[in-house]
Amino acid sequence: MNLHAIQAFVAIVETRSLSKAAEALYLSQSTVSHHLKMLEDELNTSLIVRKKGNRTIHLTPKGEEFVSIAERWLSLLKDTHALQNSDPHTSLSIGCTDSINTYIFPHLYKNFLNQEPHIDIHVRTHHSLEIYNLLLNHEIDVGFVITTFAYKNIIIEPIFDEKMVLICEPNEDNPQKSVHPSKLDGKNEIFVDWSPEFHAWHDFWFSSSKRPRANFNNPSLILTLMDNSNYWSVVPISMANSFKKIKNIQILDLLDPPPNRISYKITHKHPIPSRVESMNILDKHLKVFKDTTDLFID
């Protein structure tokens, strides 16, 4: 079976477009079409539905059946190449959102590297949806995300469930431990859109007329603005505790709070066989980390 034909088919499945598949593979559209036709001829069946005027590709029933076979075929090929080029070291590729990588996992990575000298790790920071796509393509072995998407070849497992809290400059004249969202001035908010559930909660309590003072998609910037005594932000407790270790901030519980933030581990149903042992070792370190970390403690 031709490697290029399999790669072309998988790219078409992922993009649902011949032109986008061609772009992803750095090939011409005619070349991708030729590879697909070669594969269909070899299998003696049609894999995609051909209708004039349709811009979106749809698979035939046989095409749907062949998707998992093609993905396993590519996975086995990668494993074969890894075996041919193997040395005493193995590797593990991890994809994480910025907030998990920066505020939760540094100690996990440190302990893993200290205790597993034979495993090299490659850590990538991306948005949740990008991590799903990297995992589907076997460009990473495991992902850690804060949003769920339904993919039949991805296993989703919740690993952290943490409350959201408010952080602000300490107020010695009013050392309160909690605050109701109705008492907050939305014009002083440093806003991060943590999830659709958080956004819904936020829209309920803060009208569109009260725009946040700042809106970031990178939570790392929040701490730099906490010198202003009026500013506040809602963040996961792990981030708040991390901030408190490097800056004197106040952490307040929210009355009528937003939903907890749940972090998920995602893995492929058909992982690269040579990475399975390293993934199992990571799981053991993750369990120890969850049992010992103080990041989620009030």
TrEMBL record:
<feature type="domain" description="HTH lysR-type">
    <location>
        <begin position="1"/>
        <end position="60"/>
    </location>
</feature>
<dbReference type="InterPro" id="IPR036388">
    <property type="entry name" value="WH-like_DNA-bd_sf"/>
</dbReference>
<comment type="similarity">
    <text>Belongs to the LysR transcriptional regulatory family.</text>
</comment>
<protein>
    <submittedName>
        <fullName>LysR family transcriptional regulator</fullName>
    </submittedName>
</protein>
<keyword id="KW-0238">DNA-binding</keyword>
<dbReference type="GO" id="GO:0000976">
    <property type="term" value="F:transcription cis-regulatory region binding"/>
</dbReference>
<dbReference type="InterPro" id="IPR005119">
    <property type="entry name" value="LysR_subst-bd"/>
</dbReference>
<dbReference type="GO" id="GO:0003700">
    <property type="term" value="F:DNA-binding transcription factor activity"/>
</dbReference>
<keyword id="KW-0804">Transcription</keyword>
<dbReference type="InterPro" id="IPR011991">
    <property type="entry name" value="ArsR-like_HTH"/>
</dbReference>
<keyword id="KW-0805">Transcription regulation</keyword>
<dbReference type="Pfam" id="PF03466">
    <property type="entry name" value="LysR_substrate"/>
</dbReference>
<dbReference type="Pfam" id="PF00126">
    <property type="entry name" value="HTH_1"/>
</dbReference>
<dbReference type="InterPro" id="IPR000847">
    <property type="entry name" value="LysR_HTH_N"/>
</dbReference>
<dbReference type="InterPro" id="IPR036390">
    <property type="entry name" value="WH_DNA-bd_sf"/>
</dbReference>
